[in-house]
Specification:
133 residues, 2 domains
Length: 133
C-alpha cells in the first residue's frame, strides 16, 4: 500500500511484459477479497469465458442500457478513454505504460478542440510580462 492510500497491482501485460499499475483503495480491497493472501497466480479463473461472464455482470449492474457483447479487454479501453478525456493522450499513455504512438493507434489522440483549449490556456502564460520565475 502506498502512503497516500493508493495500491500497486502488478500485471502480466501484452507480450509477456510485467507492469505495475496504481489502484484506488476500493478496487484494491475488492481484489484482495477475491485473491486473499496469494501473491502469485491468476486473480480469476484463467478461463476467458469466466472473466467475460464477470464483466457482463458488472456491465449489467453499472451500465444497464449498454447492450454490446464485450470481452474483458473492454475495461482497458474504457479506462484509456476516461484518462484521455481527463488528462490528454500523452499523460494517459504514460499512466497506462504504453508509448504515445501505440496509445493513439489504439485509442485515438487528442481532439482538435482539446488542443485549441490547451493552446488558449498555455500561450498567454508564455508572455514574458506575465511569466513567474
Amino acid at each position: 500500500m502506498l502512503p497516500d492510500g493508493w495500491a500497486d497491482l502488478k500485471a502480466l501485460e501484452k507480450f509477456r511484459k510485467e507492469l505495475t499499475f496504481k489502484l484506488i483503495p476500493e478496487i484494491a480491497n475488492q481484489i484482495r477479497g477475491i485473491i486473499g493472501d496469494r501473491t502469485e497466480g491468476h486473480i480469476f479463473t484463467p478461463s476467458e469465458r469466466h472473466v467475460n461472464i464477470l464483466n457482463r455482470k458488472a456491465i449489467e449492474k453499472f451500465c444497464p442500457k449498454l447492450h454490446v457483447p464485450m470481452p474483458s479487454h473492454f475495461f482497458r479501453h474504457m479506462c484509456a478513454q476516461h484518462l484521455k478525456r481527463m488528462l490528454g493522450a500523452s499523460k494517459a499513455a504514460a499512466i497506462m505504460k504504453t508509448t504515445l504512438q501505440s496509445f493513439m493507434e489504439s485509442y485515438g489522440g487528442d481532439t482538435s478542440e482539446e488542443v485549441e483549449t490547451w493552446t488558449r490556456e498555455a500561450l498567454p502564460k508564455l508572455d514574458p510580462d506575465n511569466m513567474e520565475y
